[in-house]
Amino acid sequence: MPITDMTACELAAALTEKRLSSREATAAYLDRIAALDKEINSYITVTPEQAMKDAEASDKRRAEGRALSPLDGVPMALKDVICSKGVRTTAASKILYNFVPPYDATCWSRLKAGGAVLLGKVNMDEFAMGSSTETSAFGPTRNPWDEERVPGGSSGGSAAAVAAGLAAYSLGTDTGGSVRQPAHFCGVVGLKPTYGRVSRYGVIPYASSLDQVGVLARDCRDAASVLQLIAGQDRMDSTSAPAPVEDYASACGEDITGLKIGLPKEFMSDAIAGDAVAPDIAFAMRQGAERLAAQGAVVEEVSLPHSAYALPTYYILASAEASSNLARYDGVRYGARAENAENVYDMFTATRSANFGAEVKRRIMLGTFALSSGYYDAYYNKTMQVRTLIKQDYDQAFAAGFDCLMTPAAPTTAFKLGEMTDDPLTMYMQDICTVPVNLAGLPGLVVPVGLDNGNLPIGLQLIGKSFDERTLFAVGSRLESPLRLQPGLEM
Amino acid sequence: MTKYLTTIGLEFHAELKTRTKIFCSCPTDAGAEPNTHVCPVCLGLPGVLPVLNRRVVELAVRAGLALNCDISRYSKFDRKNYFYPDLPKGYQVTQFPLPICRNGYLTIKDAAGNPKKVRINRIHMEEDAGKLVHSGDNLSGSTFSMPDYNRAAVPLVEIVTEPDMSSAEEARDFGETLRLRLLYAGVSDVRMERGSLRCDVNISLRPEDQEELGVKVELKNLNSFRAVYRAIKFEEERQSLLLDKGLPIVQETRLWDEATGETRSMRSKEDAHDYRYFPEPDLVPVVIDDEWLAAISGDMPELPEVKKARLLALGIGEKETEQIVSEPYLSRFFDRAQELGCDPLTVSHWLLGDISRLLNESGAEFEEVPVDADQFAYLLGQVESKAINLNSARTVLEDLFGTDKKAADIIRERGFAQISDTSALQAAVDQVIAANPKPVADYKGGKKASIGFLVGQVMKATRGQANAALVKELLEKALEN
Fold it and tell me: Does the pLDDT value for residue A84 go beyond 90?
């Protein structure tokens, strides 16, 4: 099997058994990036020299029997919103085109401490705002399954790189579905852990109360092994949780007999997505339910009555937080700065006008409006109340005995480049299945289950209880059909 | 001529006396090279997160206890959004709807000298901004400015009163009372000249027959309570002149100019920001449980009023008490000397006399009186037992000031040990009697006052070391014969 077709765990086993060196694996990935990424455009920055050095160090450690973790030496990629000391981190924005962080994000420093080999930083929607990776200042990433189509977003580079064999796994971030929807579009596994499970320190924020670092991987076992390394409380992030880190990988393949799995009716009805859910996806849902039932799970319908309000709630809340989070990009301390301004306020305006993209500006304006005096109660305060109601829907479902819920990951499979760029509201509908999970702070896992009749991947979403990622991996590993097809991408 | 009533509310910002900043571990001490006390967190680099300094909460609670406030068991932080180059994140982390302390008060004296309660609306925690260093003398004369973020995220408490004061005197009295309380509570250095305590004034005037409050004007750039007093006096004058002429008062912020003794307009209400406050999602709520509150209360230093009462009860005069309590280092020295068994009145005398003189003369600033209390107590003991005389003791004190010398060594080295040995003095007494026949004859002839001259001669002969009382006794005895 080609090196770049292996799962991270298979690659790790080959490294452990000395069938392969990290240098060979890293070189294979770098070669493939050089050959294919001009088309896919999944990377913003590739770091070949450092990667080869790190691979060499990893081989040395393994030779001495001092591997730092099971994944020591496995080549991977980081979404370009995750700060990496000494490596440019742009958030796919012109405003940070030259920003080189003097610190590592905690999730990255934890992977580094486990011996990860960084291949580079991958593409995304600007400041993680988008569902197609088309808002990147570095050009769109293409879906490896069909280069006319988008990989989803905002972690489109992360998903495309894993799907195209340009990284063994990658980290993304998920604020409203930004890991899960691209996983679905690209036919890979995408995990958004519970809010607070992974430190947000060093991750350039979009909406702080919703953002969570996630994993894109070839299968559940890979995702679980990566979560193992990055999970846990961090004293640099007050919102990171003290909940104990469990053994996630061992959950994969566990017996699911008797587990109660809910199918929220609102996610299939006209009220929320209705017609928008593609027939192939609805069919995949039924097949998935049968598959789990056949393995002993109890699959029942459940109701989450406030689901219809999740999307507007999300867009108001996330935009409000974003308008504040993005205020620091003012040209004073780092990043782009407009020249020849008359005074400092002109400089702020010129810098931000010239260097933020249209979608980012749209959300800053939405958020600024929602927080303005006179509108705060009608918008921000109301969304906070609705958020509580949405969370209560899930609490009640779990209290009623459900172990996890299953929904589509998005209403459609991958759409074409440019198809929705002029229609932001339709684009926002892409997040309809995923945003409630962020609002409720719960873990969500998307696993590939098959292809639609256009040969595009379909993933289904599992939603779990707070800090119960194990159940998601148990069920996900029983549901997934890893897709190792990379049509048109054979070298 | 219409008479006007003045209504005043005050807003204070006090820098908390913590070692490190509010959300990172950068040091807070002032005076460092620009941008050396900074890190990714206080510079607001992309992706960094704040972590609340526990000590900030403790000192804010202390401030609340010192100002008779209710302490909120649950409070949270909010973001106040605005753009300015000294503000690294484009927002200030502060507390808006749920501050850490509420509903306090301080008692001051009104014009008639009666106690008056001034209510405190709230105390909240927040971070300071950096400061801009302009290329010219001021902003308008500069071609560029350089931000210094050393002060960014230094912890502050903001204290807001109700509009309960009605004169410049009351405002000054309130400010000074508050300052001393915060100082005693160890909350802040409260140095207005250095900006570790800042005071803004909200003032309005209305005709005495009008119920409704007048238009509010905010006064800033007040670097002392004298400036607070003068600025209020100026505003009362300025606004009453306008009102007399039937002209409107503009709702605005005015800057006090210490040099000209005037206030001038800085910005009007139309320029006011919409700060778009919302809950800070990067921090968790501050919850103060019984145990923590008890620990903070138990750790609370003695407040000035309690100390005053204690000194008065010891028999110290009202004026002296006021003087000692107004300087915490004097009052701490008083306590230490008293613990060592010194007589309170004597300590007060020395503190306000020689020690205050030495402190003034040195011109330096002191955290503590630079005299070892043990040595001071020893010195007082020597005076009391007449082992040395008062003049020598004052010299010894000067030698002790700012050094770690031992009083006993100084007394020995300087030969200050008082001669109280009859046999040692008798020879000198005899010599002086022999050498001064005229004063001796005067004394014997009934002019008893001439004994003073003879005592002086003996003191001179013994280079001041003789026990003067004993010398007098010996002279009298010799001359009676």
Answer: yes
The model's pLDDT over A95-109, given as tens digits with 9 standing for 90+, comes to 999 999 999 999 999
Is the confidence at residue B307, as pLDDT, over 80? yes
Please write the tens of the pLDDT for every residue from A222-268. 999 999 999 999 999 999 999 999 999 999 999 999 999 999 998 87
Question: pLDDT band for position A271 (50/70/90)?
Answer: very low
Torsion of CA A155, A157, A162, A168, to 10 degrees: -100
- Cβ neighbors of B135 (< 8 A, separation 6 or more) are B142, B143, B144, B145, B146
* Total beta-carbon pairs less than 8 A apart between chain A and chain B: 102
Can you list the domains of chain A with their CATH numbers? Answer: 3-256+410-479 (3.90.1300.10)
Of B49, B88, B277, the CB nearest to A237: B49
Which of the residue ranges A311-315, A475-479, B134-138 would you say has the lowest mean pLDDT? B134-138
CB neighbours of B138 closer than 8 A, spacing ≥ 6? none
Rounded distance, CA A137 to CA B232, Å?
Answer: 55
- Exposed e or buried b per residue across A248-282, where buried means at least 16 C-beta atoms within 10 angstroms of its C-beta: bbebbeeebeebbbbbbebbbeeebbeebbbebbe
pLDDT at B367: 82
Handedness of CA A237, A242, A243, A248 (dihedral sign): positive
Instruction: Report CB contact under 8 Å: A330, B90.
Output: yes
* B136 secondary structure, DSSP code: S
Which distant-in-sequence residues (6+ apart) come within 8 Å of B477 by Cβ? none
Gap from B287 CA to chain A (nearest CA, Å): 14
pTM assigned to the model: 0.90
Contacts of B145 in chain A (CB under 8 A): 344
Q: Minimal Cα–Cα distance from B43 to chain A, Å?
A: 8
- C-alpha B148/C-alpha B133 separation (Å) is 7
Which ranges in chain B are annotated with CATH 1.10.10.410? 422-480
By annotation, the residues of A acting in catalysis are: 79, 154, 178
What pLDDT digit, counting tens, does each position of B54-111 carry?
A: 999 999 999 999 999 999 999 999 999 999 999 999 999 999 999 999 999 999 999 9
| ipTM above threshold 0.85 | yes
- In this complex, the residue of B44, B83, B281 whose CB is nearest that of residue A208 is B281
Yes or no: say if A319 and A328 are a contact pair by the CB < 8 Å rule.
no
Give the H/E segment covering residue B303.
none
Give B254-288 pLDDT, tens digit per residue.
Answer: 999 999 999 999 877 666 789 999 999 999 999 99
Q: Which residues of B touch A103 (CB under 8 A)?
A: 40, 45, 48
Residue A264 and residue A202: Cα distance in Å, rounded? 35
Q: Per the structure block, which two tokens stand in for B447? A: 């002019």
C-alpha distances in Å from residue A146, one per residue of A413, A485, A489, A491 = 11, 12, 10, 16
Angle between helices A22-40 and A8-16 (to 10 degrees): 150
The residue assigned the tokens 């010891």 is B314
Average pLDDT over residues A419-448: 92
Structure token pair of residue A386: 């609705």
How distant, in Å, are the alpha carbons of A205, A212, A287, A399, B177 from that of A404? 28, 19, 17, 11, 61
Q: Which residues of A touch B52 (CB under 8 A)?
A: 238
Cα–Cα distance for residue pair B106/A51, rounded to 1 Å: 65
CATH class (in words) of the domain with range B422-480: mainly alpha
Span A337-359, pLDDT tens digits: 999 898 899 999 999 999 999 99
B130 interaction partners in chain A (CB closer than 8 Å): none
Question: Does B40 sit within 8 Å of A102, measured CB to CB?
Answer: yes
Nearest to B89 among A82, A328, A334 (CB): A328
Q: What is each CA distance from A167 to A49, B177, B264, B406, in whole angstroms?
A: 16, 66, 64, 75
